[in-house]
Amino acid sequence: MRITMRIRLTLTQKLIISFAFNGICMVAALVYAISGLGTMRRTADDIARNDLAAATAAIAMRDTMLAQERTARRFLILRLPELREMHGRQADTFLRTMATIQQHTDVAGVSELKASYASYGTLTARMFAGGAVDEAAMKRAAERVETAIEKVRSEQQKVLESKLGVAGERESRTAAWALGLAFSGVTLAIGVAALLVYSFSSSIGKLQRATHRIAAGDFDHDPAIPPGDEIGSLSEDFMHMAQRLKELEQISLDASPLTRLPGNIAIERSINRRLREGIPFAMCYLDLDNFKSYNDRYGYIKASELIKQSGELIHNAVRRLNDPDAFVGHIGGDDFVVIIDAKLAKAACQSIIQNFDAMIPAYYSEEDRAAGAIDGVDRYGVPRRFPLLSISIAVLSCQPGRYASAAEIATAAAAVKDRVKESSGSNYIIVREAGSGEA
Questions:
Q1: Structure letter (DSSP) for residue 51
Q2: What are phi and psi of 372, to 5 degrees?
Q3: Cβ-based neighbours of 218, under 8 Å, separated by 6 or more
Q4: pLDDT tens digits, one per residue of 259-275
Q5: Which of the four CATH numbers 3.30.9.10, 3.40.1190.20, 3.40.50.720, 3.30.70.270 does domain 264-431 have?
Q6: pLDDT of residue 201 exceeding 80
Q7: Which of 169, 60, 147 has the alpha carbon at shortest distance from 52?
Q8: Element counts in the chain: helices (H) and strands (E)
Q9: Does the pTM of the predicted model rise above 0.70?
Q10: Which SS3 state, helix, strand or coil, does residue 206 take?
Q11: What is the Cα 277 distance to its own chain's centre?
Q12: How many C-beta neighbours within 10 Å does residue 407 have?
């Protein structure tokens, strides 16, 4: 007699098997996703440690090169030994920065940069040694160095975009495989797995969109992924990376093309950081007096050169005070900002005024220097006689808790500036308490 045994599964057993199969599928999907996400996180960490460091170094190297050019030009005129020493320090800083770029990245153009800078260094060494150097040749050599720096920065950008593209492809591939495995389990336990699949696919989709948005330049995009797991950590890494890229882009775009000093965005960020951290500081608002009349008289080319030299003068005067956290910015036009330790504010004002007053006569004709004034028309169209250019400095001593925002400080500084400009010649006022001042 033949006996046929049929195994019948109860609903509970089917559910258990269904959940078990779904669990296996989900675990497999999760393992694959975590592996892919781990790789992407390592890519993000690599970008943060190397590419961003190299990008920052490239910007710093460009600024150092500009500083060397200024120092070399001044030496051609003044022949001061301290300018030779200053140029040597700047050259050492440039070489260290270039070594940092080589350490963190392997892009084309570094060899060209080294060669072009070596040529520039040969010319400057000959100049500082007292030899005859063609100024045009030095200028061309400096331009080749700047071109090589820009090429390195461009290559770094291409490498960064390539890494972001690979990360996006890896995300797409990870998402496709993970969702396929999850869907196999969902077919047996749709009710239980639906929520997990939705949550997981949603996070992957957000990361994918975030990658594309960041690559397109939308650095403020928030993927809205809660922290606490690998996806959340990766999301935080993406947001930190995007914020750093945004800061680098803002610094590059916000800088004044004339003075190369940071602009309003960087100024506000510097003030707000100090307010946020409770750091006491002095905010100096600098304004050139009678600049409009000078511009009307001598034209915008000489006026622009005066603004450029004033920015360099202010920057150098502040740097000589050796405050590592000091900041010099260019609001625009003939307005500048210096943020410095309150104890150094007076010395900064005196040094700036002394150097500015010594520089200004060279920007006037012999006739105007002898007269000590020029004829012009004020902003209301009334003919007037204007004294030679001077500088007014309004200084606010900002103690923790006294001011709430950069806007409040700017408003207070503008009011103090009006008080300074009531006096003739170059002057400064330091306001230590509300309603008080020190001239």
A1: I
A2: 70, 15
A3: none
A4: 889 988 889 999 999 99
A5: 3.30.70.270
A6: no
A7: 60
A8: 13, 7
A9: no
A10: helix
A11: 19
A12: 12
